[in-house]
TrEMBL record:
Top-level taxonomic group: Bacteria
Xref: InterPro entries: GapR-like, GapR-like_DNA-bd
Segments forming a coiled coil: 15-42
Family per record: Belongs to the UPF0335 family.
The entry's keywords: Coiled coil
Name the record gives this protein: UPF0335 protein WH87_02365
Domain GapR-like DNA-binding: 11-82
Molecular function terms, GO-annotated: DNA binding
Length: 84
């Protein structure tokens, strides 16, 4: 169980270290996001559809079973809407 934190037992140096680590990670995250944005801009400049690229990236993150289930439900819904 976590110990209750009061003014008497907060280690200022440890707290500062946690906050600084988080801040560094946030800076790295922002830099990576900017890099990804540049890659999408480059792909768009070469004529690729960035919405489709984003969708492919999202799909590739899914495991095979999750992807198959999603595709089956999508197919079922499209059939129900008369789209197939």
């Amino acid at each position: 169980m976590a110990e209750e934190i009061t003014g008497d037992n907060v280690a200022a140096d440890e707290l500062r270290a946690f906050i600084e680590r988080i801040e560094r990670m946030e800076e790295e995250k922002a830099a990576i996001a900017a890099d990804i944005k540049e890659i999408f801009a480059e792909a768009k400049g070469r004529g690729y559809d960035t919405k489709v690229i984003r969708q492919i990236v999202r799909i590739r993150k899914q495991d095979a079973n999750e992807r198959a289930e999603h595709e089956a439900i999508l197919d079922l819904y499209m059939q129900a809407m008369g789209m197939q």
